[in-house]
Amino acid sequence: MTKIAFIGLGNMGGPMAANLVKAGHAVTGFDLSEASRNAAAKTGVSVAGSIAQAVREAQCVITMLPASTHVLYVWDELLGFVDPGTLIIDSSTIDVESARKVHDFADKAGCPSLDAPVSGGTAGAAAGTLTFMVGGSDGAFSRGKHILESMGKKIVHCGDVGAGQAAKICNNMILGISMAGVCEAFVLAERLGLSHQALFDVASTSSGQCWSLTTYCPVPGPVPTSPANNDYKPGFTASLMLKDLKLSQQAASASGAATPMGAQAAQLYSLFEKLGHGGEDFSALIRMLRGNEEATAG
Ligand code: NAD
């Protein structure tokens, strides 16, 4: 049993903290949102009134926050209250540079740290089947692995500090591009009079097969658990997809990598957000591709 503080109990952090409780860890959580705090309390998380209160006596602190600004702010604060030697893990998706910066904060406070972003979405968070992509020293990884195993089924040590975020950004660029491609294929099929099910039956067992099609199908019917069957309620919001695509483009430009398809996907999601759909699941992009909403984009 490890005493764990969990900061950020939202769509992902809430179920992740619940799985730590189920695995027998003592979890104290904090979130700015009252609704998230109340939901976490129902799953056995002991809810604290502040970050300071949550991290006091913790042997491990995990953060699951929206973006790098939140992570920089929260790590700066929490490192003032933890004992040296406390393992600090960030599972948010953020840019590599900020990830390295917070590792540096932790290092100065005498704390080992890991960047450990995840893949698998809210369903994976609830089922405890996330994939963790981990960056950090061998020592920090061997301390954190068993904790991450309570929330995920695959834990990959990608390399030193920042390597987890690098892997996450590359993975999500593939996801943004592949979802746009699958949406386009369904729109084309509709225009050609081909049923959704027929395209799915062929492509899911042919060379068009990919996660965006077989697990997260953007049309209702073929995959009953996909957000398309629930009026595109997220899931993974289009705004978060856009955030990750922007991170990939920032990293591509800083490293000189050519990513023209990633740039195109970023433009599509940027337009989709401008049209007011940022809070919808990212697979709802298919609605924009079907229509002529571009004409009204601001
Ligand atoms: P979310 O917005 O549902 O949850 C974030 C939580 O952080 C919110 O409850 C918010 O109140 C809280 N928060 C913000 N600032 C805080 C602070 N200073 N102190 C305490 N709490 C604070 O977001 P999410 O969907 O859980 O995503 C979290 C991270 O995981 C993001 O970086 C996202 O890119 C990544 N991610 C999300 C998914 C997904 O499917 N939702 C999948 C993989 C990765």
Kindly describe this structure:
Its EC number is 1.1.1.31. GO terms for molecular function: 3-hydroxyisobutyrate dehydrogenase activity; NAD binding; NADP binding. Residues 162-289 form the 3-hydroxyisobutyrate dehydrogenase-like NAD-binding domain. With 298 residues, the chain is α/β, with parallel strands linked by helices. It folds into 2 domains: 3-160, Rossmann fold, CATH 3.40.50.720; 166-296, Orthogonal Bundle (N-(1-d-carboxylethyl)-l-norvaline Dehydrogenase, domain 2), CATH 1.10.1040.10. The protein contains 13 helices and 9 strands. It has helices at residues 13-22, 34-42, 51-55, 68-78, 96-108, 121-127, 138-149, 163-191, 196-203, 211-214, 238-255, 260-277, 285-290; strands spanning 3-7, 26-30, 46-47, 60-63, 87-90, 113-115, 118-119, 130-135, 152-159. A 6-stranded parallel sheet has the order 3-2-1-4-5-6, sandwiched between helices. Helix 5 (96-108) links the parallel strand 5 (87-90) and strand 6 (113-115). Helix 1 packs parallel to helix 6 (121-127) and helix 4 packs parallel to helix 5. It is globular. Nicotinamide-adenine-dinucleotide is lined by residues 7-13, 30-33, 36, 64-66, 70, 73-74, 92-93, 118, 121-122, 236, 240.
